[in-house]
Amino acid sequence: MDDYLNIALPKGRLGEDVYSLFASCGYECDGVMDDSRRLVFENPERQVRYFWVKPWDVGVYVERGAADIGVAGKDTIIETAPDVFEIGDLRLGRCRMACAAPDGFTDDGGTVLRVATKYPNIARSYYSSMGREIDIVKLSGSIEIAPLLGLTDVIVDIVETGRTLRENGLSVTDVISDISARLIVNRASYRFRGEQIRELAGKLSSRISEEAERR
Ligand code: PRP
Description:
There is one protein chain. This protein is α/β, with parallel strands linked by helices. It has 2 domains: 5-93 and 180-214, 3-Layer(aba) Sandwich (D-Maltodextrin-Binding Protein, domain 2); 95-178, 3-Layer(aba) Sandwich (D-Maltodextrin-Binding Protein, domain 2). The chain has a 6-stranded mixed beta sheet with strand order 2-3-1-4-11-5. The protein contains 8 helices and 11 strands. The chain binds 1-O-pyrophosphono-5-O-phosphono-alpha-D-ribofuranose. The site of 1-O-pyrophosphono-5-O-phosphono-alpha-D-ribofuranose has 12 residues, from strand 9 and helix 6. Residues 141-144, 157-164 line the site of 1-O-pyrophosphono-5-O-phosphono-alpha-D-ribofuranose.
């Protein structure tokens, strides 16, 4: 392999914000933000290579060493538990993992609670810590519709502005955790390329603090 630092970016708006942050720290790379179908981009001077991958797959690329580092939402990190180091909070893509139910719903604990979610592990672990028996219905998206159609009683999902819940007659019943984009690192890369990685992480962290002060 070459000496390039391989970085997996989550495709989508979060990934674009993440790339802008990296670029503002001197890790820019031509073409990354172009409207094209290319997925791999290199800056030979900076020795950096970016890949666009599906947000849920970032952990896999980093765990297996196809990428040295990556940026993944804390939601996908908790749910898929990749064997990587998490070394920074980029404070982007901030939202909450929450339980929500139709307005006015109360769980009387009488029957098995039906829960729709994209995050079965997070939901299972949350309800198990409450000692509540549940039946998980795993969905791929539009989770909020499940209680409206009587498919489930409640949902466990990401809440950002709260608008999707509001517009579908649901409200948060409990917050499970705060979520944001995290910098994750392959364990071997951290051993062998620690200096390069710490330099990048340090620059990102300074830039994030500057941004926070400016606000
Ligand atoms: C996410 C999440 C909620 C929505 C929350 O969905 O699953 O549905 O955003 O955002 P809000 O609180 O600002 O309304 P996403 O847009 O990823 O689509 P999905 O339904 O396919 O999961």
